[in-house]
Amino acid sequence: MIWPTCGHHVAGEGCCREERESVAGEMCCKEERESVVFSDDFRWSGWYPPRGYDCIQIHERADPHTWHDNYFCWRWGVKDPGMKWSSAGPILGMKCTRILETADPHTWLDNWLCVPRDSKLNLSWSPAGELPDKNCIRWIETADPNSWRDNFLCG
Q: Is residue 128 scored above 50 in pLDDT?
């Protein structure tokens, strides 16, 4: 994994500063941990927050297929990317990506994942497979029969 600040690999290849910290068993520069790398630092969870991650809940209340336990997460030890979920349209003042699944009849037309306007994350959504030349993370809810097996958030 390459961190954006210095361009060094973790564990033993040197830091921009002498100050180091252990993150997930690897030594990293603290300043390097202030940036997140898509998709290395992110993870989808269809079953509660995984250990070692901070998360936002992805919940469409109108969908009866267990969307109450789905989370989009980033690793502990990296700067909080400031993400927010909206199931009622884009959030004013934020850079938002529409999360759309037209095959699902449960109001998936107005859901958005947002980051601060100045975020370096440039996200794209695909309801029909990974996007070419992008790093993608699959979003899957196995209990939902409405085509939630081929959806990807890409960056």
A: yes
